[in-house]
């Protein structure tokens, strides 16, 4: 399952890419990142965390972008709290489409963003930053991805209030 909030954001703006189309287009036979599609129109998406060099996220996301025909490149940036403000400013400066955020930055990043989704406000955490023309909005997609994975397996969730 593709859980990136940035991919989900792009789906909202690219109506021809439906959830059903993505879920049925499995990536097979790929041992590493697909390369060769980068050009002057490629948007950069990052993952900011420390440590992060072990992550398989670039392989997963770059293959998904290629499969969906999105002209994006996904890279990891080893960023701890001490470099976080500069890294978030770089999202604007470099006109990056956004970034995923992992530990230890999920809470600390909030003070550098322009807006937060209701879920991020409630959780006091951000794992996805989307850059819309210089306005950085923080989202948390962990819960959405978890609940969707359960639904995909036929597991219903009942909330008691």
Automatic annotation (TrEMBL):
Residues 47-129 form the Shikimate dehydrogenase substrate binding N-terminal domain. It comes from the Bacteria. It holds the Pfam family Shikimate_dh_N. GO terms for molecular function: shikimate 3-dehydrogenase (NADP+) activity. Keywords: Amino-acid biosynthesis, Aromatic amino acid biosynthesis, NADP, Oxidoreductase. SUPFAM superfamilies: Aminoacid dehydrogenase-like, N-terminal domain. Pathway: Metabolic intermediate biosynthesis; chorismate biosynthesis; chorismate from D-erythrose 4-phosphate and phosphoenolpyruvate: step 4/7. GO terms for biological process: amino acid biosynthetic process; aromatic amino acid family biosynthetic process; chorismate biosynthetic process; shikimate metabolic process. This is Shikimate dehydrogenase. It comes from Lactobacillus kalixensis DSM 16043. The lineage of its organism: Bacteria, Bacillati, Bacillota, Bacilli, Lactobacillales.
